[in-house]
Specification:
The complex is a heterodimer of chains A (127) and B (188). Chain A has 127 residues and is of the alpha+beta class. Helix content of chain A is 39%, strand content 14%. Chain A is globular. By secondary structure, chain B is mainly α. In chain B, α1 runs antiparallel to α4 and α5 packs antiparallel against α7. The chains are: A alpha+beta (127), B mainly alpha (188).
């Protein structure tokens, strides 16, 4: 179990690789992508909060808030970043058994991306 | 009767009866067999070496699909492209956690390192996801219905037996995660 004091996914260990940055600059330099976690009736609330705390290094209060948003609203944006970063998070979430998808920060499926509540919204919305 | 996991001086510990360990072992083996990538002899060895899998397809079994979900909602093509790059290693991550958990099942008392606990929580979660698909748990009401099955004397058919097994693994995972959260809090 990794415990990081990192404030957010941007400082998550192992994300800033040379490949990531060069790929980003080739594709979408300033279009953020969101990592969305979807509600399901199986995953335990405690487990979802544990994953948010241990993987993203979120404080317990932030992890619980995001977990409750998933539970009550059906989905929550739990991290934002480059496409490569959020895809990496998505694989990690799938490893934990959470139901995660990635979407462009604006005009994502269902038009609900970029809504308030999750971290990292409000920056660079466009489209 | 199993004892809930707890966090103490020895780390995270739990206690399981031999029959419960046999049950968990067979559940874990089932999930591993679902995740085992097919042996494709014709595959490009270099591609296989770096984890690429160009022959991958969206799983047809709902339980497998829940373990290996699409990464882009309503976009099969983008999700498939992502699978080609990541699915093989995701399968290996999951199998690794399941195997690690199975290895801890040789004694009544289960003593877990922080890594061991993480593997156990992931393994129990995957086992529960598969059981939930078999039990057709689609929403909170279904989950609540299954949750009401708590008495082993009620086990009269496959479905009620599966429900009891699901509730046992849920209880076990909940107690484990509570112990893990407690251990994280202590180390902060």
């Amino acid at each position: 179990m990794t415990i990081s004091v990192a404030p957010g996914p941007d400082t998550q260990e192992g994300i800033r690789t040379g490949t990531a940055e060069s790929t980003d600059s080739l594709t979408a330099p300033d279009i953020p992508w969101n990592l969305v976690i979807w509600n399901d009736p199986v995953n335990l609330m405690s487990y979802v909060s544990y994953v948010f705390q241990s993987y993203f290094g979120y404080a317990e209060s932030k992890a619980n808030k995001l977990m409750m948003e998933v539970h009550k609203k059906g989905r929550s944006i739990v991290a934002s970043g480059s496409k490569e970063q959020v895809e990496r998070h998505a694989v990690a979430m799938h490893g934990f058994g959470l139901w995660a998808t990635v979407e462009k920060a604006s005009g994502g499926p269902g038009g609900s991306a970029g809504r308030s509540g999750g971290p990292g919204q409000g920056k660079g919305k466009r489209g | 009767m199993a004892k809930a996991f707890k966090y103490g001086l020895k780390g995270i510990t739990g206690y399981l009866e031999p029959a419960e360990r046999d049950l968990l072992r067979s559940l874990i083996a089932d999930v591993i067999s679902m995740l085992q990538p097919e042996d494709r002899t014709g595959q490009d060895p270099l591609a296989a070496l770096i984890g690429l899998d160009m022959d991958v397809a969206e799983p047809t079994d709902r339980a497998v699909k829940r373990l290996l979900p699409n990464v882009v909602k309503d976009d099969g093509a983008a999700s498939l492209e992502f699978r080609q790059l990541t699915e093989r290693s995701l399968r290996e991550t999951k199998i690794g956690a399941l195997r690690a958990a199975a290895l801890d099942l040789d004694k009544d008392e289960v003593v877990l390192t922080p890594d061991g606990a993480r593997h156990w929580s992931m393994a129990l979660n995957d086992v529960r996801l598969v059981l939930a698909e078999r039990l057709d748990i689609r929403d909170e009401a279904d989950a609540e219905h299954v949750h009401r099955m708590q008495d082993w004397s009620q086990a009269e058919d496959v479905e009620s037996y599966l429900a009891l097994v699901y509730n046992f693994t849920t209880w076990l995972q909940e107690s484990l995660v509570q112990a893990m959260l407690q251990s994280m809090e202590t180390r902060r």
